[in-house]
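hi! just following up on the protien thing from before. the input was this:
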Amino acid sequence: MARSQVDHSFFFKKTKRGIVILVVYIDDIVITGSVKDGIQVLIHHLSSSFLTKDLGKLRYFLGIEVARSKQGISLSQQKYTLNLLQDTGYLGLKPVATPMETNVKLKVDDGDPLDDPKMYRRLIGKLIYLTITRPDISYAVSVVRKFITSPRVPHIEAVVCILKYLNGAPGRGLLYRSSGHLRIEGYTDADWAGSPSDRRSTTGYCTFI
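and the predicted 3d structure came back as:
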């Protein structure tokens, strides 16, 4: 198998019949592809060289839940989200409609410094991981992550807004439909020097498959 130059945990083998893919993270492995017998050959090869356990069809991987239906394959991080809300004490509180207030302009020196900046950094790290299946919070997370060096009260208030938004639909995720086209559509825009701190532009993009 060949190793991807983009992601060194991603291995693949292409043939005229299709492709076999292996993704490995420490001792967790996912095998997929379009060649069924090629997948079985790989599974047999791994089991003959290492002590492995075949858990069957993928249901859970690194906090990501996988569910199959007639509509397609859905990915979510519901358990991860509920644990995050439970740990922060925001589980069950009244949710808000959007992850960030419209036209909010956070600045580096706004408000008083936080007593525990490490807590802020831990929260940001967890929210960044959640964007894997929640692109709807990507922009809001990209804004609050700018202040991890010296977070202040307005910054943590913006994080709390994201948590309240997640409380409204913790099981929301991505659906890869089993029918329809495979066309890739992309949209992008920028706000042109919209940051009040450094006058940098923020570029946003959406990609649909």
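The chain has two domains: 2-56, 75-208.
The beta strands are 2-3, 10-15, 18-25, 28-33, 60-61, 64-69, 72-76, 173-177, 185-190, 203-208.
cheers
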